[in-house]
């Protein structure tokens, strides 16, 4: 299998601000009057070019989710939640539709183990010149135990064949139009990770995919990555998936656990 690598510019990377661990560092996203290269905005949401484009052969943008530096996707009011996810998906698909890029990725980092550098809530939309992310995507990574689903609407599952291993939550909807339940399932997954997960978790990623007429979001709690995946690419499947799916259904959808 051909290996595909993104090239990271370390000279630019060393200039990036960081305030997840360095709590005393100023937040550049809070200095809204100083933001430059703004692409679009729907207050308080702002999409702008990334000031520190560390990825080569790529067009990097940042989506600032809110003007509240301590805001969080897990607790956004429904009005703002839908405004944000609708805005993000629109600009992601619009960038994809230009045909300029081989593919366009849309993702979110949260917390010290997520790979992010700034704590202010934000996402990233990145156009890749030479890499098609869909070549690494297989349908089975979205298969799982159904937690909740709407008739002819979004579906919320817990992966039985996770991409990296252990616990991965999937949300899917048709590409035709935005459905509010999609964002609500996404928010529930994040809220569960931060508040009810059986292992203390303070970090997660959200990855969006546009595959075969569907929009997917994969929500992944982040811990130290297992060496079996790092060294051998072997995902592990935990033995308590059924319990976790039932627990989520009980907490958020008032569904009693089966005996």
TrEMBL record:
InterPro entries: DUF4931, DUF4931_C, GalT_short, HIT-like_sf. Residues 8-131, 135-253 form the DUF4931 domain. This is DUF4931 domain-containing protein. It comes from Neobacillus kokaensis.
């Amino acid at each position: 299998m051909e290996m595909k690598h993104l090239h990271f510019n370390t000279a630019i990377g060393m200039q990036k601000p960081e305030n997840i661990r360095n709590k005393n560092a100023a937040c550049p996203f809070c200095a809204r009057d100083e933001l430059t290269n703004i692409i679009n905005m729907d207050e308080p949401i702002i999409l702008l070019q990334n000031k520190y484009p560390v990825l080569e052969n790529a067009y990097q943008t940042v989506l600032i989710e809110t003007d509240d530096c301590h805001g969080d996707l897990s607790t956004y009011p429904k009005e703002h939640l839908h405004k944000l996810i609708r805005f993000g998906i629109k600009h992601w698909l619009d960038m994809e539709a230009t045909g300029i890029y081989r593919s366009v990725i849309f993702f979110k980092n949260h917390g010290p183990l997520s790979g992010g550098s700034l704590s202010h809530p934000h996402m990233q939309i990145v156009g890749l010149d030479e890499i098609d992310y869909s070549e690494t995507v297989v349908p089975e990574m979205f298969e799982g135990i159904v937690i909740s689903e709407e008739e002819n609407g979004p579906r919320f599952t817990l992966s039985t064949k996770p991409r990296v291993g252990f616990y991965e939550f999937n949300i899917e909807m048709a590409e035709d139009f935005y459905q509010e339940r999609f964002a609500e399932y996404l928010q529930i997954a994040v809220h569960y990770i931060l508040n009810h997960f059986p292992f203390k978790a303070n970090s997660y990623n959200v990855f969006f995919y546009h595959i075969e007429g569907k929009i997917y979001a994969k929500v992944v709690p982040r811990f130290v990555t297992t060496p079996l995946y790092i060294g051998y690419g072997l995902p592990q499947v935990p033995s308590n998936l059924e319990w976790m799916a039932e627990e989520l259904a009980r907490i958020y959808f008032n569904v009693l656990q089966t005996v």
